[in-house]
Amino acid sequence: MRIDLHTHSTASDGTDSPAELVRNAAASGLDVVALTDHDTTRGHAEAVAALPEGLTLVTGAELSCRLDGVSMHMLAYLFDPEEPALLAERELVRDDRVPRAKGMIAKLNELGVPVTWEQVARIAGDGSVGRPHIATALVELGVVPTVSDAFTEDWLANDGRAYVDKHETDPFEAIRLVKSAGGVTVFAHPAAAKRGQTVPEAAIAKLAEAGLDGIEVDHMDHDPATRERLRGLAADVGLLTTGSSDYHGSRKTCVLGEYTTDPEVYGEITRRATGAFPVPGAGGHSV
């Protein structure tokens, strides 16, 4: 089985619609794909409707969190999307995205970059606006050559010149909320240092004590030495280890299935979940 547990669609900051995403996942030879858009489940229904035969969909979301001033992302799988407390927290985070984006645009304008809200809103479309949309605007304006080049201290990285904080959930609270909604939590790309400051490994042990289920180890932002270190940490504190592409369509260079999750780990994730269940493809229809 080939299992990719971290992808994004146009419901947040990917370039594939949810329907295109699942069709592309099947064409890439995946058996299981998780749709984990930022702080939203809005793309799930379209993905389910278009799900090709032979592909299983894991519903999820990537939750924006902050621990001691450090931003981090929590992958949440197979939770009840209508559970009121978790739904309210996701909406609170999502509603703060527009003023935050406008704040970053204002900072870029002060730095002499003629980006506009209209440009960023056009790029975001119906998705939850985020830094990748602003980064795409910088590429369009010729300020940087690629989206990744916008995520530096000069521009949009954490604590970069144009960075603006947004509301983010305490990760201990996120774990509690997801568990209450029957879901499973995995700390996304925990050692992706090129994105900015990362959470100390001692904090990961505390998150494990609080009920964190796993950490994403095999990821494009982790070099081989980092992966081995994280694997050792996970073994020490009893965490599952996953691998995934963090696919964003054409917005990033990663491809579907670039990194994958062990089938036994996937089985354990589905065993722990009670809020929702993986959806097997029945052929789908054109969306």
Count of individual beta strands: 8
**Beta-strand residue fraction:** 15-25%
Shape: globular
Largest sheet: 8 strands, mixed
Alpha-carbon distance between the two ends: 26 Å
Mean of pLDDT: 95
Rg computed from alpha carbons, rounded to a whole number of angstroms: 18 Å
How many individual helices? 10
Contiguous runs where pLDDT drops below 50 for at least 5 residues: none
Q: Structural class of the secondary structure composition?
A: alpha/beta
Helix share, percent = 25-40%
Order of helices and strands: EHEHEEHHHHHEHEHEHE
Short structural description:
This protein has 287 residues and is of the alpha/beta class. The protein is built from ten helices and eight strands.
Write the layout of secondary structure elements.
Blueprint: E1 3-7, H1 18-27, E2 32-35, H2 44-49, E3 56-67, E4 70-77, H3 84-95, H4 97-110, H5 117-124, H6 131-140, H7 171-180, E5 184-187, H8 201-209, E6 214-218, H9 224-237, E7 240-243, H10 263-272, E8 279-280
Parallel strand pairs: 1-2, 2-3, 5-6, 6-7
Antiparallel strand pairs: 3-4, 3-8, 4-5
Helix pairs in contact: 5-6
Can you describe this structure?
- By secondary structure, the protein is an alpha/beta fold.
- Helix content is 36%, strand content 15%.
- The protein contains ten helices and eight strands.
- Strands 1, 2, 3, 4, 5, 6, 7 and 8 form an eight-stranded mixed β-sheet that branches.
- Strand 3 and strand 4 (70-77) form a beta hairpin.
- Helix 5 (117-124) packs across helix 6 (131-140).
- The longest helix is centred in the middle third of the chain and has 14 residues, at 97-110.
- The protein is globular, with a radius of gyration of 18 Å.
- The model has no long low-confidence stretch (mean pLDDT 95).
